[in-house]
Specification:
Largest sheet of chain B: 5 strands, mixed, barrel
CATH class of chain B: Mainly Beta
Helix content of chain B: 10-25%
Radius of gyration of chain B: 16 Å
Protein name (chain B): CST complex subunit TEN1
InterPro entries (chain B): NA-bd_OB-fold (IPR012340), Ten1_animal_plant (IPR029146)
Strand order of the largest sheet of chain B: 2-3-4-6-5
Number of strands of chain A: 15
Number of domains of chain B: 1
Structural class of chain B: alpha/beta
Organism (chain B): Magallana gigas (Pacific oyster)
Pfam family, one (chain B): Ten1_2
Strand content of chain A: 15-25%
CATH topology of chain B: OB fold (Dihydrolipoamide Acetyltransferase, E2P)
Oligomer: heterodimer
Shape of chain A: flat
Radius of gyration of chain A: 31 Å
GO molecular function (chain B): single-stranded DNA binding; telomerase inhibitor activity; telomeric DNA binding
Number of strands of chain B: 6
Largest sheet of chain A: 5 strands, mixed, barrel
Chain lengths: 388, 123
């Protein structure tokens, strides 16, 4: 039995031992029928691969399939991946003004990595000696530490050389037609055994995580059934689509009021909702879309049921706000900085038409007034009239 | 951007029998001739040795007796028998546990083979 010298090698010793003990076989027959379906866009966040720097073989990173739905996302089997973690040897080095470009080889493939230079290094042109001179008053231990830190920073400035083992974490991007990793973290590894640790980790990671699905089998089956039915639009995506149609309608036509029946007659909406059987279902979807718009500040509920007023440039609430501001900006309290927007909201709510108006609606209206140069935003929350 | 070809990791004994392509081998430096730019790498376990042409990587850091990892292209001399590796990268890996390395390498190769098997099954 061979006893490893350092604690680092002990970790990879344990990994190697684990590997020999559990001979895991990849069961490829399981997901054969579902292999071509991808997780819908809204559920990508459930997958751990979305959030993590994925340790992968460079060969696989180059062969990743692009995702049409989300820009910057790539698929490995059914996992959405956009950040990777690679460890390899620098085989090509190129220095530019702002960045270093390295080609990294891990034994399975070669990929370019872009490491941006630190802006601080550009600015500080002081020598190590002059900085050390300045720190003469520090105790000996701190001076040694300081010189150590300065040396390592100087090394970082020079970049890595050919043959260095580097550890890079970053996002996958396409630069001039080729895939590359833009590093957010990069470091040179002095211990060659780290390569062994990575080589032992990767097959285990692949077998247990990447080649398996995150979501349980039943959920995946339901998803594939649903996507078959709705032909591309799954249940959760109807309301956002409706919202988009409504926004374009409001911007084109600029109606004063909008109601649920009115919305259901818009051509785009009828196409979207034609698969729904009952008009109740359709109305609930339209209602939810209108609620979302209300939250954003585009529409507000009027006194009558199911009728929504639309906030457009030139609507009646603008006149009301202008009157409030004309009245209040001359008062001593508001003369310097203007009215706080919450004060304006309170005043607007005093009128019977707009008693239940949301803050975001008033803000949208104030924004429109600002675009028309009728009010000035003096600070983040305060507004003032342009001409009294 | 022209990227150099990826060096597939191999043991020296395998490297002796490959025909062409880029490889990455690890071994102990037995001999280093600066003037003729030749070196000999030896596998400590199987004691198979491999000739390395170091024209691109001179001067070498590290001395005879250290472990080195070489990435380069395998070429056959005119004779056809002895392969020689034109080293692009020579990297000193003193302190690397070779037994562990070989084990990890074998596990990696086993995993790749199982991948190819599943691909074949579906085709």
């Amino acid at each position: 039995m061979i006893f490893p010298r350092e604690s680092l090698t002990w970790d990879c010793y344990c990994i190697c031992y684990e590997m020999d003990v559990e001979e895991m076989e990849v069961d490829g027959t399981e997901n054969h029928s579902l292999r071509n379906d991808k997780i819908p866009k809204t559920l990508c966040g459930l997958d751990f691969c979305f959030h993590v720097f994925n340790k992968m073989y460079i060969d696989d990173i180059i062969a990743l399939e692009k995702c049409d739905v989300i820009p910057g996302m790539y698929w490995y089997k059914r996992h959405p991946i956009y950040k990777v973690d690679i460890m390899g040897v620098v085989v090509k080095r190129q220095e530019n003004v702002r960045c270093f470009i390295y080609a990294v080889d891990d034994g399975t493939g070669v990929i370019t990595c872009c490491c941006w230079k630190s802006r601080l290094h550009e600015q500080s042109s002081e020598d190590i000696e002059t900085t050390l001179q300045r720190c003469r008053n520090l105790p000996e231990v701190l001076r040694k530490k300081m010189s150590g830190v300065l040396m390592s920073e100087a090394k970082k400035k020079e970049g890595y050389s050919l043959g260095d083992l580097v550890h890079i974490r970053g996002k996958i991007k396409i630069f001039r037609g080729e895939r590359e990793v833009v590093a957010s973290y990069h470091n040179k590894l002095e211990d060659p055994n780290m390569e062994i640790v990575r080589m032992s980790e990767l097959p285990i990671l692949y077998r247990t995580l990447y080649d398996m699905d995150t979501l349980p089998k039943k959920v995946l089956e339901e998803l594939s059934e649903m996507s078959g039915q709705k032909k591309g639009i799954c249940h959760g995506e109807i309301v956002p689509e409706l919202k988009k149609i409504l926004v374009t309608f409001i911007e084109d036509q600029q109606p004063e009021e909008i109601s649920v029946e009115h919305v259901s007659k818009i051509p785009g909406v009828t196409v979207l909702l034609k698969e729904m059987k009952t008009s109740e279902e359709k109305n609930t979807q339209i209602q939810s879309a209108l609620d979302v718009l209300e939250g954003e500040g585009r529409v507000f509920t009027k006194q009558k049921n199911h009728v929504y007023g639309v906030i457009n440039p030139g609507c009646s609430m603008e006149r009301l706000i202008m009157d409030i501001l004309k009245r209040d900006c001359v008062k001593e309290k508001f003369q310097n900085e203007g009215c706080h927007y919450l004060h304006i909201v309170d005043e607007v709510r005093k009128s019977p038409d707009y008693s239940a108006i949301t803050n975001s609606c008033v803000l949208t209206c104030l924004n429109n007034l600002e675009y028309q140069s009728d009010v000035i935003r003096t600070s983040f929350t305060k507004y003032f009239l342009c001409k009294i | 951007m022209d990227l150099p070809k990826c060096g597939s990791v191999q043991e020296i004994s395998n490297a002796l029998s490959t025909n062409q392509g880029s490889i990455k081998v690890t071994g102990r430096l037995i001999q280093h001739d600066c003037i003729n730019r030749q070196a000999t790498l030896c596998d400590p376990q199987t004691s198979a040795s491999l000739c390395v042409d170091t024209s691109l990587t001179e001067p070498l850091e590290g001395s005879v007796g250290s472990l080195f990892q070489v990435i380069g292209e395998v070429e056959r001399e005119d004779g056809g028998d002895t392969p020689i590796v034109r080293a692009r990268i020579m990297r000193c890996v003193d302190g690397m546990d070779l037994l562990m390395y070989n084990r990890a390498l074998r596990n990696q190769q086993k995993y790749f083979q199982s991948r190819n098997v599943t691909l074949v099954r579906h085709n």
